[in-house]
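Hi C.,

You asked whether I'd gotten around to modeling the 270-residue construct. I have! Everything is below, sequence then structure, no commentary in between.
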Amino acid sequence: MSIIDAILLAVLQGLTEFLPISSSGHLVLAQHLLDLNSYDMISFDVFVHFGTLISVFVIFRKDIVEIIKAFVKASVSIKITQEYKSNEYFRQGVAILIGSIPAAVIGIFFREAIEATFKDPKLAAVNLVITGLILFLTRLAKPTEGKQVGIISAFVIGIAQAVAILPGISRSGTTISAAIYLKIPPVKAARFSFLLSLPVIAGAALLEGYRLFENNSDIGLMPILVGTIVAAIAGYFAIKILLRITEKGKFRWFAFYCLILGIIGIIFIG
């Protein structure tokens, strides 16, 4: 992989990771067009995901610090139930942990089967259509002002995140949509979706990082390093854009893009 290829794919990843249009679907299609369909591309995909993880840390650093402080306080005081009732950040942290369980289980026990799907651009195109339908149907949901993400809703949103491991199924799209279906206001749904990405992407990056150095990947360290940095920058702007669009109630507009791209992919990919 050349540096130019790495930059192009990283920009694509950074912009599409948080916009609800499936970064994995775009990467699979782009790799197909650039003839980069090697097994080692899985490692590159995970590291550019790690780049977008950095952008989440930058934008939500205050929330992350408060969540960590809340967990430390609960651990020291051993008053977990009391902290859960009184501390919003502690509740949010618990919701993130619970929401991360489904994707972690799927990623660990079905890893090889999932990796095989990344070699099928036709499947990614079909899943983009599915993503479009999921986004479009949020227009039927009726969010309730003030509703928070609880334990049950966090697990349901986590299941949506686990499904989004498949290429073409947008992680942000399905998790935000699931939250909206559960009557959580769109802006809160988007913020929770971004924070929910932290454990899963970090875990995948660590796992793939170990495999990368263990197996001496052919991609090379420089494309991975450049791709990670570029993805972080692009991801930062993507988060800002999506938060603004969500505030204006235009979230479902992304459905049309996914539907069109998916249909084009189905028609033209052999």
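If it helps when you're writing up: Residues 186-215 form the longest helix (30 residues).

Thanks,
B.
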